[in-house]
Input
Amino acid sequence: MTFTIVARCPDTELLGVCLATSPLGVASRCPHVRGGVAAISSQCHSDWRHGLVGLELAAKGWSPEEILAAMRQKDRFFDYRQVGIVTADGRAAAYSPSKGKAYTGHRLGEGFVAMGNGLAGSAVVDAIHDAFIANAAVPFFERLVRAIEAGAAAGGELIGHKSAGLIVCAPAVERPLIDLRIDMANPLPADGGDAVRDLRRVFDAYQPLVPYYADYWLDHPDVSYAQYLDMTASRGAEVAAGLP
Output
């Protein structure tokens, strides 16, 4: 009951997962990302152990296919799991379970996996796949969010989306560059709410602050985030005016 994009950016080598679902707190259970290693989502009947083990195996150089085979061998309930993996070198693989609720499926692309389960239909996965390709020219964070928005627009889950998340990591950086979580849509889908819309609202507000929280504020304790935004806005105006 989740639809997801798992991907690597070939230009920046960022790894990320963006996803949405009808249950609560999806970002605390399904996505697992480690910069320079892999991005993984374990969903459908999610098992967080697969994410942790998958990252360790990817760090040892295992291919996505080898990691999926190891998961299957160790998990007697693997036919309930959906797993997508993209490693730091851009290799991608996915498994869609025979016991996933309709519609369950995935599509692979160059350096990414579009997948989902319990969806309105195959058009949801197709929309995620096609949107990710179509938005190749936009920044990676935005590209991931647009892919999930396309999945929601194609029907997503017919019962609505209570939670969503976006996590992106960079090589050689211990913490995520961005880790946004909508644990419970406000209002809930039954009252007209949608976690994908909430994720867009939060992402648009936070995205300009990614460089600030990534490293700038560590060595500039006297600069607030509001001052930083003013500084970057002023600099942007100077660049637009052709000033050095």
Remarks:
- The radius of gyration is 18 Å.
- The helical segments are 48-59, 64-74, 122-134, 140-153, 195-206, 210-214, 225-240.
- Residues 225-240 form the longest helix (16 residues).
- Confidence is low (pLDDT under 50) at residues 239-244.
